Amino acid sequence: MVAGGDNAHGFKHATGIGEALAEIVRGEQTTVPIGFMSPNRFG
What we know:
Blueprint: H1 14-25
Protein backbone atom coordinates (compact mmCIF):
# COMPACT_ATOMS: atom_id res chain seq x y z
CA MET A 1 0.00 0.00 0.00
CA VAL A 2 1.25 3.47 -0.85
CA ALA A 3 -0.03 6.81 0.37
CA GLY A 4 1.07 10.27 -0.53
CA GLY A 5 0.08 13.58 -1.94
CA ASP A 6 -0.54 15.43 1.30
CA ASN A 7 -0.20 19.15 0.84
CA ALA A 8 0.23 21.70 3.62
CA HIS A 9 -3.43 21.31 4.67
CA GLY A 10 -3.37 17.51 4.50
CA PHE A 11 -0.11 17.21 6.42
CA LYS A 12 -1.92 17.54 9.74
CA HIS A 13 -3.92 14.40 8.88
CA ALA A 14 -0.85 12.25 8.15
CA THR A 15 -0.91 10.40 11.48
CA GLY A 16 -4.58 9.48 11.11
CA ILE A 17 -4.09 8.34 7.53
CA GLY A 18 -1.06 6.31 8.57
CA GLU A 19 -3.05 4.65 11.34
CA ALA A 20 -5.91 3.79 8.96
CA LEU A 21 -3.49 2.37 6.38
CA ALA A 22 -1.77 0.23 9.01
CA GLU A 23 -5.14 -1.18 10.09
CA ILE A 24 -6.11 -1.94 6.49
CA VAL A 25 -2.81 -3.71 5.83
CA ARG A 26 -3.28 -5.80 8.98
CA GLY A 27 -6.81 -6.70 7.81
CA GLU A 28 -8.48 -4.91 10.70
CA GLN A 29 -11.54 -2.66 10.78
CA THR A 30 -10.44 0.96 10.74
CA THR A 31 -11.02 2.98 13.90
CA VAL A 32 -11.64 6.14 11.88
CA PRO A 33 -14.25 6.55 9.12
CA ILE A 34 -12.65 6.30 5.67
CA GLY A 35 -15.70 5.90 3.43
CA PHE A 36 -15.46 9.51 2.27
CA MET A 37 -12.21 8.60 0.47
CA SER A 38 -13.74 5.74 -1.54
CA PRO A 39 -13.60 6.09 -5.32
CA ASN A 40 -17.16 4.70 -5.34
CA ARG A 41 -18.50 7.73 -3.43
CA PHE A 42 -19.35 9.38 -6.76
CA GLY A 43 -21.56 6.50 -7.92
